[in-house]
């Protein structure tokens, strides 16, 4: 799977492309099939990401479970920065 994120001003576009038969990371041909596309305000996407991190990952499996599943520490600082950016953007609206 290849995830493509594009941003133009306040709009973010996300596309997930599947490449059949790919066995090595980063090595794929031009035969990708788009399996998901979305376009939305970046702040709405950011809210979804932050909500998922806090509700589904952190609360359902806990910090230790997150560390085991993802093999790295829960990105607490990144979540705090994202939360700050969301709050600032909402104040401007």
Structure in words:
With 93 residues, this protein is an alpha+beta fold. The chain is built from two helices and three strands, in the order βββαα. It has helices at 42-70, 76-92, and strands at residues 2-8, 11-18, 33-41. The radius of gyration is 16 Å and the shape is flat. It starts with a strand and ends with a helix. The relative contact order is 0.13. The mean pLDDT is 86.
- Helicity level: 40-55%
Count the beta strands. Answer: 3
**Major beta sheet, specifics?**
3 strands, antiparallel
Which sequence of SSEs, written as H and E, runs from N to C? EEEHH
Strand content: 25-35%
- Widest sheet, order of strands: 1-2-3
Mean pLDDT: 86
Structural class: alpha+beta
Number of structural units classed as domains? 1
How many helical stretches? Answer: 2
Give unreliable regions as ranges. none
Compact overview of the structure:
This protein has 93 residues and is of the alpha+beta class. Helix content is 49%, strand content 26%.
Question: Secondary-structure blueprint of this entry?
Answer:
Layout lengths: L1 E7 L2 E8 L14 E9 H29 L5 H17 L1
Antiparallel strand pairs: 1-2, 2-3
Helix pairs in contact: 1-2
Provide key terms for this protein:
93 residues; alpha+beta; 2 helices; 3 strands; 49% helix
